[in-house]
Amino acid sequence: MRKKIIAGNWKMNVKPSETAALVKAIAEAVKDVQNVDVVCCTPAIDVPAAVAACKGTNVHPGAENVHWEQSGAYTGEISTGMLLDAGAEYVIVGHSERRQYFGETDETVNKRARAAIAAGLVAIVCVGETLEERDAGKLVEVIERQMKTGLKDVTAADCAKLVIAYEPVWAIGTGRTATPDQAQEVHALIRKTLAGLVGAEAAETVRIQYGGSMKPGNAAELLAKPDIDGGLIGGAALKADSFAAIIAAAK
To answer: I need a labelling partner for 171 at 20 to 30 A (CA). Which of 56, 94, 136, 248 fits?
Structure first.
């Protein structure tokens, strides 16, 4: 059985001065949860405060992006070494907003993911189609391309440090959500594609999150599906009670 994982993606929200209070509120709400990995992926500037607030709790700190080089002339970027030194354990790679607004490609996703995994961070690698791609019948083509290029040279052994998040781009922040059956169909496709890359046994161990407007009201139905192993949560992760309600559904 794969352990469920619920990760909050704070995006560009929450100041460093506000971070400890939110993490502590989440930690208090989920203190009795033992069978779900709870993660808060924060803006880089919030990571030290989140790490400090996570100590002694069952909440794990993470970041929202990472560069593939260890150092150098990459103004505005952050390395795996910096994240590890700050205490981060997880990092999101290839989020649709990074792809849409900041020129992320499948190739740069691959570089970031492999660097994160090699450093010992857990990489939450995001894949997903736009509404135009889905309506054009390109769902399978898009997912397979993102997986095969984004996870090129990722090995079966690397899967211990890999989580995949399926984000139907058309369901992020729009209030629209894939039906549980639609989500399960794509999660199964992701696992099948992953099996072709690392082998069926390793693919069965990798957790695949749903990242398209999962909320307390729909979490239980989504998480009941056999290939949906958690959620990558945006807006609902910014309030301790709603985030805890999703974690309770996973539990």
So the answer is: 248
